[in-house]
Amino acid sequence: MKHVKQFLLLFVFSFQLLYAQSEDKSLLTLERLFNGNEFNGENFGPARWIDDGKYYTTLEPSKDLPQGSDIIKYETKTGKREVMVSASLLIPKGTDKPLRINNYIWSPDKLMLMIFTNTARVWRYNTRGDYWVLNLETKELKKLGGSAKPSTLMFAKFSPDNKKAAYVSGHNIYCEEISTNKITQLTSDGSETIINGTFDWVYEEELSLRDGFRWSPDSKSIAYWQLDASGIGVFNLINYTDSIYSKIIPVQYPKVGTTNSACKVGVVGAEGGETIWMNVPGDPRNNYIARMDWHPDSKNIWLQHLNRPQNKLEIMLCDSRTGEAKTIFTETDDAWIDVTDYMQWINDGKYFVWLSDRDGWRHIYLISKDGKEIILLTPGKFDVTDIQKIDEADEAIYFRASPGNATQRYIFKTSLDGKNKIEKITPAELSGMNSYQISDGADFAFHTYSKAGTPPVIDLVELPSHKSIRTLVDNKKLFEKVNELKKSTVEFFQSDIGELALDCWMMKPYDFDPSKKYPVLFTVYGEPAAQTVLDRWEGTDYLWHLMLAQQGYIVISVDNRGTPSPRGREFKKSIYKKIGVLNSADQAKAAEAILKKFNFIDPDRVAVWGWSGGGSMTLNLMFRYPEIYKTGMAVAPVGDERLYDTIYQERYMGLLPENDSIYVVGSPVTFAHQLEGNLLIVHGTGDDNVHYQGTELVINELIKNNKPFTMMAYPNRTHGIYEGENTTLHLFSLLTRYLNDNTPAGGK
């Protein structure tokens, strides 16, 4: 028997060795993509510029304590390296392991280091955790928060004078003296519904607001948001699997047309005392305070006040001592106004920098404090996608745009007075996606470059010459892995739909034969929140699509009108009150044009898939255009637009009840009775963003009309459907199998 076991072991070992030797590294599998880290890239950072760019710091694994990280300081020009903070300094008393660094913050004088660790998830992101402060002179490591429970502090930050730290805990704001650890509670009314210094679900999700307080430049006061969430409708998620009885998980979630939180802004002294509330006009439940911060004078705060339809935005200055508020500048639009993160005061607070598409293109403006002087800094028929850096010393502003190709991004420079020509800084040979983290003083930048199908490279460059000083991340191993794969180049082209041409990309099988006809999979999104046709590395999304191309599929993506492609106001805002209608029509017209243009695509094997807004698009295309799309895979779709949240849906579709018919005609559920093809719907039952409820309404309508379909519910998974063991592999195995079964691969 012993010899039999030895023989069996030898046989198994020989089989495994043979299998390993025969495995084709040029072909992708689901297991390679979703059951390991084979295609992970290198990490860099988080990096912080210090001393106006003379140095920078970053995290690197500790050689002495493998379970920890060192903070390394580099001299920018020379690359001289030194360990600024070793992991050994980050071991709390009574323990033997260094803190895990989820984030780190330097005090303004760089003599103290704040570590964010032991984090916990709040909605989408880990914004709750523990904060520790290391004194670099004394090497003393202290935890903030006193006797607060672990993982309960949020958004801790140093005061500008380096003496204090403020943070949120339990919906209240606290201030702590660094030297003595004396804690002063600045607000005391925080509760489940009174939210100080942070936000409710919808403000976080749709206005990207999480950190809800700001130190004054003179360190004497703190301005903060307060939300009163009483009266918001509660949506109950249900957990069936973690005990023998179901558990209800309530989420305050304002659906279209329902009550919002009341929002206001107050100022409180860092030593405590009464809050002075800003006298912002209008119903606080039917207006939004979308952005807020201090004016450089430490006396006034500014805020962006947005009405509920989001077509009027007022910049207000508020006296922090009296609460008096006055409007200094107003933007209006027939559709909606985009809130901007790039408002910055310059020239000692006499002017602020602003982004607006008021002339039909998204441009940078310089506006005086009284709102009377408006200077256009970036004239021309192109969109500025974002502002990268304002360099007052050089009277220059760096921004990204791509006037000739909406799928790419480059950095440009112009003067703050609007008198000089716009200068392109990114070299012409770097066609693709370029992003930057620019130093104070704007002498250097971390530059990340990638292209479709090409992993990112990060180098350190001088500005404005863009001369590379050295490569920080070359992703050599990932490049080698990707270069081993059988693949064709991602092709960018345009599809003429009559009114205009839409940007597209296409992936073909590596052994493509133009004399054959291939199935096509359209990957879609199509709403104002995202653009899919971008010339950049898309990680696992690209690799999964490449795997399908290797199997014999053509994969195509199209950016319809309404996506944030930098093609002008009309391109983006033409979707106003037409979500579900205009975007799906554009996609269908593009598909028809593509089928006519490329005779190697089989019109009988047309599939489409998407997630979230792309899931909604998939349903709309399957229901509205069954003559084109034969198979659809909709993940986490919005089945009925009236079930989504106030801020997002009302921004693009208007208010109820006057726009009820627009919501009805824009919703997939309205057209579910027209389904003819193969449909897979996937949803997480714990989705707090796009509720499973909407999918059930679609299911009911399909049942009512006797329409066959396939459904997969992932228990307790949220919108990303990644929680739980093996979930991602299972999901993409399901999608791949459904596509293979219903739209067979390969050229014919």
> Tell me about the biggest sheet?
8 strands, mixed
Task: Name the quaternary structure.
Answer: single chain
Q: How many domain units?
A: 3
| Strand percent estimate | 35-45%
The helicity comes to 10-25%
What distance separates the N and C termini?
Answer: 54 Å
* CATH classification, class level of the largest domain: Alpha Beta
Shape annotation:
globular
CATH architecture of the largest domain: 3-Layer(aba) Sandwich
CATH superfamily of the largest domain: Alpha/Beta hydrolase fold, catalytic domain
Q: Would you give the CATH topology of the largest domain?
A: Rossmann fold
- Could you give the order of strands across the largest sheet? 36-37-39-38-40-41-42-43
> Uncertain runs with pLDDT below 50, 5 residues or more?
1-22
Mean pLDDT: 95
Protein described:
The two termini are 54 Å apart. Helix 7 crosses helix 8. The chain contains twelve helices and 43 strands. The chain has three domains: 145 residues, Lipocalin, CATH 2.40.128; 147 residues, Methanol Dehydrogenase, Chain A (8 Propeller), CATH 2.140.10.30; 253 residues, Rossmann fold (3-Layer(aba) Sandwich), CATH 3.40.50. The protein is α+β, with helices and mostly antiparallel strands and 748 residues long. It is 18% helix and 35% strand. The N terminus is likely disordered. The radius of gyration is 27 Å and the shape is globular. The strands form ten sheets. Strands 36-37-39-38-40-41-42-43 form an eight-stranded mixed beta sheet, sandwiched between helices.
